[in-house]
Amino acid sequence: MAAQFGRRLRRGATTTAVAAAAVAALSASQAPGSPLVASEDDQPAAGATPSDDNAASGNSPYFTDLPPLNTPNKPGASVNLPVTGSAESGIPASILAAYKKTQQTVAGTDPACRLPWQLLAAIGKVESGQARGGRVDAQGTTLSPILGPALNGQGFALIKDTDNGAYDGDSTHDRAVGPMQFIPSTWETWGQDGNGDGRKDPNNIYDAALAAGRYLCAGSRDLSLAGDRDRAVLSYNHSNEYLRTVRSWFEYYKRGTHEVPDGTGILPVDLGAGRDRGTGSGRPATTTSPSASPSPSPSPHGSTTPKPPSKPSPSPTNPDGPAGKPSYPPPTPEPTPSQTLAGVKDAGTGELTATAGDAFTERIKVRARNGFGGPLAKVSVTFTVTGDTDAAFDGGKRTVTLATGADGTVTAPVLNAGEKTGEFTVRATATGTSLPAVGYTATVTARQADAIDRTGTTKPTAAPGATFADVEVKATYKGAVAHGVAVTATMITDDEKPVENDKGPYFEDGDGHPVRTLTDLSTDADGKLVLPEIHAGDTAGTYKLRLTTEGGATVVIELTVEAAA
Fold this sequence. Notes:
By secondary structure, the chain is an alpha+beta fold. Helices cover 17% and strands 19% of the residues.
């Protein structure tokens, strides 16, 4: 399903010599027996190659800037966070908190994995520049979506839409989403609620970091082992160039880092401040350039020097892009208040009440509003049925995503009550945002009958110790058959205020014990009910059986126990 990629480009202002020196320094820092798994031709390592279909990011493009050669601390020194350090070693506060919280959470549920938060930081740096320098709100959700390019096979993997655009806004192809760049199909399986708000949002750093941690720890991986760590990283993005880049940042962050305010993190040099990581057009595909003259810089392996970066182009067939530097679409202008989604609100939905088995006559309707309070069109809204209920929208769906129209409103499909009575909730949210949801309480009432009568005309009689012939009744509601209506049957006294009679005819429970009240009864599709077997008892006389329906309909039937001959 995924297209195969050639050697990836080293982005940024790094020269071949600096890149070679960085790789050499990284290689020297590895423990014995832990060489780089990638060879010069960038082929996957043996035994560490997941299929492209399983890559968390769909093998989407990534930032390849290397960390500076001067590390924030001496090798082997404490990894406690210093107060200050180089600009590159600073991680925005919310982003760092999410990584460390994930390490703590995973340590409590999967201690054998030994997930280091620095590995999450390295992947977050490479995937999104630490959520574009920490541009997140107080809950850790990105201020605007971080989307990779459409994975349409044009220089990238070909992954057709799997989420109807719910996460990435693209109903034709999938795109990597959020600060950890999950493709929707992977998020559907691995998505987590890392901040405890009841949602699994790939645009939230707490949710995305925990999902990444769970994904990296899949199976029996021990991430304190270099081999398992490499396999985990390659499962995230199937490229040895990607692995080398993540390794370099992992080692860099292990030597020390420090916290910086949200929104002040260092962005990759090939993206200016405020630029999104491919919010629609994405990153260009890369092709391998013709061989260039060798550089005089020494190779980290003592052989030939690394080849210079190949030339990127907007498409695989265009070789005219600037050498050594990828081209990007122009900056996306900041949206005006009239274009900015401020939230969704109720648009006049009435009371949501229905009888069990029926459809709700009222339909939920919401309106998306912009920064001025006016209507906003083409906003994706997700309606979700929650709670202990079997209610669902048409087609049996409990979650439906639709877009608002020109007037800013969208109406949910018809809601069917199901059979379970009681209350449940429907939530309407702006898809992929942390904006407050609109909640609706819906009530399912039991089916009712306003009349119930015995169908036979023969007076029920039985001899002592015998059983009565079947007693059948039929319930109606406004003259129509009342199916599925709850019925209570009770043997009552002949008092002015009848109570349960402890003498005379009786039913039997599952253990064969006499009982004189039954509650788990209901009418069939024809509104009829045949009562369970009625035992006459030993005492002759006339007794009364009262049947009461949900809705208050009542009928009293006389049962005669004849005297012994």
